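User: Could you walk me through two proteins back to back? I'd like the raw sequence and the structure tokens for each, with a short line separating them so I can tell where one ends and the next begins.

Assistant: Of course. Protein one, sequence then structure:
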Amino acid sequence: MSKLVSEHQPKAQRPKLPDGYGIPEHEEGLLPWSFVEERMSAAINYWVATVDPKGRPHATPVWGAWVDGMCYIEGSPETKRARNLAQNPAVVVHLESGSEVVIIEGEAEEVVKPDREFGVKMAKAMGDKYGAPERGGYKPKPNSWDEGGLHRIKPRVVFAWSKFPGDTTRWLFK
């Protein structure tokens, strides 16, 4: 069981959508949390949406990893998304697929100087995912984020589906 699920115990439920979307009123067919974890772990690119200080939205694909049941995204602290997150931590992260959907709404928290154990896990996850030459040959070191550039996404709500509307599922977090 992931750290996220064991700490927060999200309960799968139906999202509230306007009439006409066909969302079932029963709980049969809800997706398991493993659907989210499997897709987030396997994803190569995550789409991240932030808001700048003037309220303008900004979206960009980023590299990241699912480690210990949480989504982490990275990139220079000088990127527009990092500057936006420094001003307003509200963030949406979603996958590229429009048919196997995972959407995480929450807050980004910068992780600076992660402890050695976590740095090793994160470096391995990123190296495994992006270390092949065809993916850029990126193999960070455990101390790669000592000066910033890494954000943990703390979910508020997660949505997922693979057969809309039948298995559309929502998990709420505190």
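----
Protein two, same layout:
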Amino acid sequence: MTLEIKPVQSKSDLITFVTLPHRIFKGCPQWVPPLIRDELATLDPAKNPAFEEAETKLFLAVQRGKPVGRIAGIISHAANKKYHTKNARFGWFDFSQDHHVAEALVSSVVEWAQSRGMDTLTGPQGFTNFDRQGMLVEGFEWVGSAHTIYNYPYYVEFVEKYGFQKDVDYVETESFAPKNGLDPRYLKIKERLERRADIRLLNFKTKAEMVQRGLELFRLLNQTYVDIYGVIPLSDNYIQYVIKKFIAYVSTDLVSCAVDSRGRMVGFLITMPSLAKAFQKADGRLFPFGWYHLWRGFKSRECLDVLLVAVEEEYRREGVVVLMLTSMVQKALSMGFRRSETGPMLEHNGLVQSLYKYFPSRTLKRRRVYKIRF
């Protein structure tokens, strides 16, 4: 069967690229479609400041005149500079259950990357760690989240057959409200820290207050995540872009910040109600009724998504993260939440994962970034 791999060259091509998963995952109860307008903006150099330090090449696979696959090749110059590599990334990788389609797509990215002087390829990854990354390798039976990739098991079969090998794994944990209340050890740490004059929690009253301290929050993220796999420094332009993009999704009640005696931010914890079901109902579109489903999703108390946590190194062993987490858990329980899910956490990040050992919890999903050398 004639298969054509074509680069995305027009707005129409880009729309086809972004909406192709609606064909691949049609009828799949676990898939959570992202908002189409957000995907278009992410892949638009005029809108996404990540392009200031990156370049990309998008490819579509077309068979019998119908799109059957897609892939993005990305070169992050910021990442290559930081890690002293010549690495390209692949992302937005979806294809029908046909290894010939997948092989043609990956080969196109490899050829492009080699022409740009690269010698390795990793993925699925985006421009930064704020893009969806990591191929699902365990937990296919569970509904995805609004912030992660979902893929069929045959994706994994293909990349490993092609020669990709594990570079790093992430795990996602599901936790439940403790039947007998919070562990006393958490409460004692919280009470001790609350008596200290040099640490206090800052709870935002309005989104405007969050925006005002947004740069400070993300600069702390730059500092504390510097050694995390694949993380690159975020420019002020990109930080403003992320703040503007995600501020609508964040509730002030579910964000907690720790500050020192000078009011300087030393830690933060960001959570939000799970919007997975709302995104499924919206089916990628805000209009005519997608906005309503998202509005309902913000009011849901079915599950709390734990998105980001960071603490300045000086305060990591001082219990600041426990202070923020315990306060957030108490607040979440009072709001009616009884279950939470983390975002992807590096499998060897023991400090973060240890926070959940005092809660009834289980590993729900595992996802992987793969690597191949040319």
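The mean pLDDT is 93.

Let me know if you want the two compared in more detail.
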